[in-house]
Design a protein that fits this description.
8 helices
């Protein structure tokens, strides 16, 4: 099963646009320097995020969970020429390196990088969002959704990562964290404020379109 997944991923990556030199650098350095490099969105999911962002052309976007900035740059690729991405992460140790990546990108003036607790910072960011990507503390996914749903414009996108949770959502006796993911998925499936589907790429990406 693992080998088939690896073959599929390699095939998908081979049939999409190549990574930019900066994204390749972030990918490589993340795997060299971080203890949990699998948290990186990676090549194929990065192209998915870029494509969705380009379809929306957000004037105001929000990312919760920057990590090493790979997904941030992919989202920024689709920003409106006057658009702005606010990206929030709580890890101060990565701040200098990630800011360096942003400064090196073509979108340095369009990415506002915040360090701190997203629940505290989000209310201080003014405006209605066109595009939201939630990829942080999984226990807070439903909290973030409820906090933000009324701040997403009709037709805007709200994305939540890791909703298949390495296949644990199918376990007959799930652990507590998996139960939270299952509860999130079941709650969102019933929410009539959004159109929704899960893309079974990587660890599962919930795509929600505000009605």
């Amino acid at each position: 099963m693992f080998e088939e997944s690896e073959r599929l991923n390699a095939y998908l990556e081979g049939s999409t646009d190549i990574e930019s030199s900066l994204l390749k650098k972030i990918n490589r350095e993340t795997y060299l320097k971080e203890t949990m490099p699998h948290m990186l969105s990676g090549h194929y999911q990065g192209r998915v995020l870029s494509m969705l962002s380009k379809l929306i052309q957000p004037r105001l976007a929000l990312e919760i969970g920057t990590f090493t900035g790979y997904a941030s740059i992919c989202i920024a690729e689709g920003l409106h020429p006057t658009g702005l991405l606010h990206s929030i992460d709580i890890n101060e140790e990565l701040a200098d390196r990630v800011q360096g990546y942003f400064d090196e990108s073509d979108y340095s003036a369009q990415i506002k990088y915040h360090i701190g607790d997203a629940a505290t910072l989000i209310p201080n960011i003014a405006g209605i969002f066109d595009f939201v990507f939630i990829d942080a503390d999984k226990k807070r996914n439903l909290y973030y959704f409820n906090l933000l749903i009324d701040r997403v414009r009709p037709g805007g996108l709200l994305l939540i990562d890791n909703v298949l949770w390495k296949g644990k959502v199918f376990d007959s006796n799930p652990d507590n964290q998996t139960k939270q993911i299952i509860e999130l998925n079941q709650t969102l499936a019933k929410d009539d404020r959004v159109e929704k589907l899960i893309l079974p790429i990587r660890d599962g990406l919930f795509v929600l379109r505000k009605k």
